[in-house]
Every structure is written in structure tokens, then in C-alpha cells.
Design goal:
By secondary structure, the protein is an alpha/beta fold. It has helices at residues 45-53, 80-93, 116-124, 128-136, 140-146, 159-168, 177-187, 192-196, 217-222, 224-228, 246-249, 251-267; strands spanning 5-9, 15-21, 30-34, 57-61, 99-103, 209-214, 235-240. The strands form 2 sheets. It has a 5-stranded mixed sheet with strand order 1-2-4-3-5. Strand 1 and strand 2 (15-21) form a beta hairpin. Helix 1 (45-53) packs across helix 12 (251-267) and helix 4 crosses helix 5.
């Protein structure tokens, strides 16, 4: 199901496109859904329909460089502090206070490409051998594109998903370049000055936190739970058998886990 998008222009003169669905009942929580790369707010459609039916408020933006949101070329516009302020402005403009934040992906550093179908099939493939050879190995992604390789798309992606993906990352929309600016910014360390201003007391995340980890080889190798625990004392971990796009591949299971966590923490 497609949801209507609202637009908001921030004080940085950037136009954001986002899904906004008010809660059905007074004092019901909002859930803020933040997508990863390469993606748009559409990737949360199963969660949006599930939580909307339960009465929750929803806000799901196309983040900077993606979808119908602005795609500036200046790297400085992708500073974390600036992008976080953009989202806060949208929340304030819609009268939203406290939210439950749900986010996907830690980000990968892909180069820009115009071979959209080749890139799409590599990102969404569930073939671990392909993932290891062409996403996990040095130079693998370049080889995949140079040779114009493609892989079968998984069954959880519909023809409408494919059309959306092709449109969202078409040459006319800027391809993958704007989205990769998030990671170029990280590589060039443009956030260093802002990060140094963060007080030591804020280095630990004390909010109740849920990590839904997949069983794909990248997640298993990195071992996110062990990396997070020293900095997130109130961490719950749920593992779902699947690949990178769990919110699409295992939507019902992810929804059940999220729902349980949100309900439990709301009662605390």
C-alpha cells in the first residue's frame, strides 16, 4: 500500500518528503521510521500498515539524498548534526514530541553507479556466496558492475517494489550519488568537530534499546550485539533468520518483535 507524502522545507532550505499518519487515539505514541541505504521510506510499508492499524502515529521520511527529498551535492549538507536537526524540525512542525525510533542499516560505502538493475539485484540477493564474493571481498562490487552481473530478486520484492527502486535511483533522480554522500562524509570525517562537543555523559545510550539482528554473514561477522553492549546497557537482542532486509523479508516476525518491545516499554 502506498501512503501519501507530506513535504516540509527546513531552515537549511531543504525539502523533505515524508509519510505522516496521526495517531488514532489521544496520548498514543508516535513511531519514527528511518530507512537505510539504498532505500526510501517505502521499505517500512509493512511496519507502517501494522502499527497504523494498532492506532500508533507514524512519521517516516525519505532521508536527505533519497526518494523525493532534496539531494544536495555539497558534502557539508550531510553532517550528522544538520540532518538530525532537519528531522527534529519536521517533528516539531507536526506537533510530535517523544517518539519511538526505529532505524535500519549502519551503511555501506558503495560508489555511484548508473547500472541500477545490477546494483538492485546485488543489494537484495539472498545468495550468501554472491554476497561474500561481491559485497564482502575487496573489489567485488566493481567486478559485479563491470561485468554487468545480475541475480534473481527475492520473492518478497514485488513488481511494484522493483518499479519504485528503478525510479528512486534512476539517472534522472541522481542515481546513487546523493545517498552515498552520507558515507563520503563519514570517510572524510566531517563530523569530527561536532562529535568532540558531545559530553562524555552522553556517550552511553541509556534508553531501552532493541537490536533485531539477522543471520547473514556480514551481521554475524561484525557481531553487533557485542560491539553495542559497552555503550548500551539496556540492550535487548532478537535474532531473526534472514538477510539484510528483515523488515521486508520477515515483516510479520519483525512486526511482532517490535510490537512486543514497544508495548512492554510503554508500560514501564
Amino acid at each position: 500500500m502506498a501512503y501519501p507524502h507530506s513535504t516540509y522545507t527546513t531552515t537549511r532550505a531543504l525539502s523533505y518528503s515524508y509519510v505522516h499518519i496521526p495517531p488514532q487515539f489521544p496520548k498514543t505514541q508516535y513511531i519514527l521510521f528511518l530507512h537505510g541505504f539504498p532505500s526510501t521510506s517505502r521499505d517500512w510499508r509493512h511496519q507502517i500498515s501494522f502499527f497504523t492499524a494498532k492506532g500508533y502515529g507514524i512519521l517516516a521520511p525519505d532521508l536527505l539524498g533519497f526518494g523525493e527529498t532534496s539531494k544536495p551535492s555539497e558534502l557539508e549538507m550531510y553532517r550528522g548534526e544538520g540532518m538530525a536537526s532537519d528531522i527534529v524540525e519536521i517533528l516539531v512542525s507536526e506537533g510530535v514530541g517523544v517518539v519511538v525510533g526505529v532505524a535500519h542499516d549502519c551503511g555501506f560505502k558503495w560508489r555511484e553507479s548508473q547500472k541500477s538493475e545490477s546494483v538492485e539485484s546485488l543489494f537484495f540477493t539472498t545468495d550468501n556466496e554472491i554476497n561474500k564474493k561481491y559485497k564482502g571481498a575487496l573489489g567485488g562490487f566493481r567486478t559485479w558492475l563491470t561485468e554487468g552481473k545480475t541475480a534473481d530478486l527475492p520473492a518478497y520484492l514485488t513488481s511494484e517494489d522493483h518499479k519504485h527502486y528503478q525510479h528512486a535511483f534512476s539517472v534522472e533522480k541522481g542515481g546513487y550519488g546523493p545517498g552515498t554522500n552520507w558515507y563520503r562524509a563519514s570517510l572524510r570525517n566531517i563530523n569530527e568537530g561536532d562529535e568532540q562537543k558531545i559530553p562524555t555523559s552522553a556517550h552511553t545510550l541509556r534508553h531501552p534499546t532493541l537490536l533485531i539482528a539477522s543471520t547473514n554473514f556480514i551481521t554475524a561477522t561484525i557481531n553487533f550485539p557485542e560491539r553495542m553492549r559497552p555503550h548500551v546497557p539496556d540492550l535487548e537482542v532478537e535474532t531473526v533468520n534472514g538477510g539484510h532486509w528483515l523488515q521486508l523479508e520477515k515483516a510479520d516476525e519483525v512486526n511482532k518483535i517490535l510490537d512486543k518491545f514497544v508495548e512492554e516499554k510503554r508500560r514501564v
